[in-house]
Amino acid sequence: MNLRDKLRAVSAPAPRPAPKPQPAASDCWRKEITRPLEEFPGAFDLSRDTLMLMQAEELPRPLDPTRILYLDTETTGLNGGAGTVAFQVGLGWLREDGFHVRQLVMRDYPEERYLLREVEAAVEDADVLCTFNGRTFDVPLLRSRFLMNRMDPDVLDAPPHIDLLHIARRVFKLRLRRCNLGNLEAQVLGIPREDDLPGAEVPERYFRYLRTGEFALLDDVLRHNEQDIASLCVLLNRMTWLYDHPERLGHSEDLFAMGVALERAKHVEEARRCYRLLPSGALHAQGQLRMAAGYRREGSRAEAARLWREMISRGEGGVTPFIELAKHYEHFERDIPRALEMTREALVRAAEPRLAPDAEAEAQLEALEKRYQRLKKKEQAQRKSGADDVPY
Amino acid sequence: MNVDQLAQVLRADQDFMENVTRWEVLPARPARYADYPDGLDERLREVLRKRGIHQLYTHQAQAVQRVLAGEDVVVVTPTASGKTMCYNLPVLSAILKNPDARALYLFPTKALSADQVSELYEMIEQAGVDIKTFTYDGDTPAAARRAVRQAGHIVVTNPDMLHSGILPHHTKWVKLFENLRYIVIDEIHTYRGVFGSNLTNVLRRLMRLCAFYGSHPQFILCSATIANPRELAETLTGRPVSLIDDNGAPAGERHFVFYNPPVVNRQLGIRKGVVPEVRAISGMLLKNGIQAITFARSRLVVEVLTRYLKDMVRDPMGNAGRVRGYRGGYLPTQRREIERGLRAGQIDAVVSTNALELGIDIGALDACVLCGYPGTIASAWQQAGRAGRRKSTSIVFFVASSAAIDQYIVNHPDYFLRQSPENALLNPDNLYILLSHFKCAAFELPFEDGDSFGNAPAPEEYLSFLEESHILHHAEGRWHWSAEDFPASEISLRSAASENFIIIDITDAGHHRVIGEMDRYTVPMLLHENAIYMHEGRQYQVEKLDFDACKAYIRQVDVDYYTDADLNVSLSLLDIEDSAEEQGFARALGEVKVTSLVTMFKKIKFDTHETLGFGHVRLPEMDMHTTACWWTLPDSLCARFEADALQGGMLGIANLMRIVAPLYLMCSPQDIAVIYQVRSPITDKPTIILYDNCPGGVGLAQKAYGMQGLLLEKCLDIVSRCTCALGCPSCVGPVGEVGADGKKTAIAVLQAWVQPAGVTP
Q1: How many inter-chain contacts (A to B, CB under 8 Å) are there?
Q2: pLDDT digit string (tens) for A162-205?
Q3: Which of B168, B458, B475 sits opposite A81 (nearest CB)?
Q4: What's the CATH class of domain B33-244?
Q5: Partner of B286 at 20 to 30 A CA spacing, among A283, B359, B715, B719?
Q6: Residues in chain B whose beta carbon is closer than 8 A to a beta carbon of chain A?
Q7: CATH assignment of the domain containing A255
Q8: Do B481 and A6 touch (CB under 8 A)?
Q9: How many domains does chain A contain in total?
């Protein structure tokens, strides 16, 4: 047996037709598409201030929406690593006459360098880069490809980068769970895709094309990619519009999640606006609690106490507003009898029998008991020392 | 009682000394020193002085000097000789001179990495310099990985992580690859066989990437005592390496006691069992407060001995924390806890497999008991090295089992004491291994026409084969990876099988927990359904083995027996590479497919070791392609014997070969397998077959083939000198196995073979 036969015996490859030779080219394949502006409502009204609510990256001032580069790649694998290649890159720009999409394909590996140079030029020229999951996928992959082709990967990190996955996920995760682009298109933008090529099948398509030379195998990939690029622009506009008009968010989950996102990013007033817009229900109560906690942290204790009292009067939020008020009376107003009263009320509610054992509730009950005993002692001590300035 | 007193007592004990075949005292060795080498950074000299080290040991000074002079080196150091200085000093020195410089440390296991990093930290802290050292392995949190990649001066990892976590993602490690100055590989003696063959290829890949990034790292390797450290180092690195083996570290006096359990049945050649004898010796050490480690060859024996020793010291609550078992399959946290306990002196006795043979820091112990010969001289010295302090006396007991190799060693202590330890053999160009790494290498960086891959043969053949298989794509003189897979995840460096089985304790229905794992090839032997599996001295019965999901479900039980499975092996021929024939006696070398199957197991009672019963095992066969060499008997000779006698004789020769071959191939017994076939499907004649016990083989069968008749001569030598009547475990095997004529036939066949001229004795 010669070496080749042995190798075959070890792992028996499938027979296959010889690949069609590709014409040697000095450029990659490209396609230009212009989509009508009607598909991109509000694209020119993009507000920098609103974008700054959604993400932390410093954006140029003024922000020119035509200088945002939308980018999405199709790759030979989803696992990453140095052997994974972006065989197709889609670039998109908003222009006066429509949304321009440029699609680049390497017809064979030697064309990769031309494709990457084009990407490099586009990124260098852009004020802002906009992707979907580009921070963890597309950009690291392109960085790797730049390095492998001895190009400077830092070019890719130069423009501020808006990653729509993170922006959308913060608002819609609570409701949608899965925040891939397809799902967002269907659930948020209201434009479900038809006959879309599943992302997982993309690499296999490319390899089949490489083996057979049939470029038509890539048609579905290109269609998929064109839709991705266009959706990036639509989604970005949609997100800024929603941040400007939270009252138009149709679901309390989204409204609450947007509030939390804004609050975490320290946009407190905007967050309160979301919480206040919540219709009554469990999320409304959570919003109120978060708001009150915010007031307490910033020192507006009276305002916080007012919110807790309102919650109690509406019968909202269960035991928590009682506990919070008890703390408030004890530590801030030093009104021990009222702290005791609140604790007692909390205890009555917390002690209600439960069907299933609940460790958290048990712990809460125990903590309440302790608080109650401590307050009792305090009250007695106050009475003894005659420091009884509390109206009884 | 201290060791000196114990030695005195034992030497005066007639009953004990009757079984001692040799009591060797290895004298204490004084230290030899040398001055700090030139070029060692002043800040490091200061640290050394602060530690009270005003001179280095000779081997340390030499290593530092040669590394600083730009040589690749391999340092051979016994346990506790301060080897880490040999690489830490030059590496730190280089980074202090050039803060951009980077170093990569490779240790065979995570446990060792953790140990060495703490020592390195200490040194860096004392020097008060800003050198960042990070461990990068499976336990490194994702959030910390970025910092390691960017800022780590010294990255400490293991071959597996380098293989699957670093090399395939090299574009994230630009800083490391561009500035790599030193590659430190410790414990290289562990890199033999499959593991070493894999590591060689991982290093070939590493060096390719270094060339791409324009760095030219130097190698600093360390090895325990083996016969061929330089050869091993040069095979691993593919470069000339200079050898430093002049050990200047001191050692205390060491007693080496060869103990052979008394014969209980002279006719059958049966001796008292090694386990009860070790139980007595280790028990004696435990009772006298001498901290000791006992090494056993199998996980099973570790568990049995742990249980015996624990029983000796159980408190009223049934706890016996002073005695612990240690072996592969215990979870890492449990292992770390045992190591700490040993260092802190809270554990008095530990029973271990060779898992503790490596340089894991457990401090030095007073005594070591080897329950049976560990298979190689190198291993035996490594295990014995666990006992041995710099200043005080230590003692090592080698207790021989009835296995022939043990008997050989205990009766020929000089073979062990005088002979150089084994060669570490590896075969980086093993077809399977090389092919896998060609894939990984092509994934990491396209090959160009005419590129070499280390000194691997015929790279173009492999590349065009991979193109045929739709894995590579050749365009304009380059071979591009064109598949979706991540090839590094398909290879495990340590064994041929990639996925391990996990072992799940279902005793508590509400709380299933994973208590260990096991490699695929061992599973049919130890985790078949109804097997008694022992873990930390506790017994479990395997309730269900889900072979496809790689899971074994076990439940705690309390029974008075253990189980032992029977392995059936069959062979088929793939290819003959070479053959020779002299007067009807043929031998050949070739590739075979080995199919192994476990069909039944025995239940064996504790203490008496009698067989209580049998059970069936239903498991799929396992296939392995490997290299084999075989010897065939001519029909004319066979015609001289009855069928039964011939079978007994063949079995006897196979047994002899199992004893002899590891000694002369310088490998451990489990690296090869020997079987006999009365009518072999390969040759259609009675045949003895020896094969490499790993997929593809590491070159042992080739070596055996190249020795021509030598192994058969040695078989004849042993069997004709053996004093037993009709066969014993030390030669052809017990008469019960080989039959009444087995020994006689084996001798006759071997004589005909060795002296084919037809000379009859």
Answers
A1: 101
A2: 999 999 999 999 999 999 999 999 999 998 888 888 888 999 99
A3: B168
A4: alpha beta
A5: B359
A6: 168-172, 174, 431-432, 435, 442-446, 458, 461-462, 465, 468-470, 473, 475-476, 478, 480-488, 574-575, 591, 625
A7: 1.25.40.10
A8: no
A9: 2
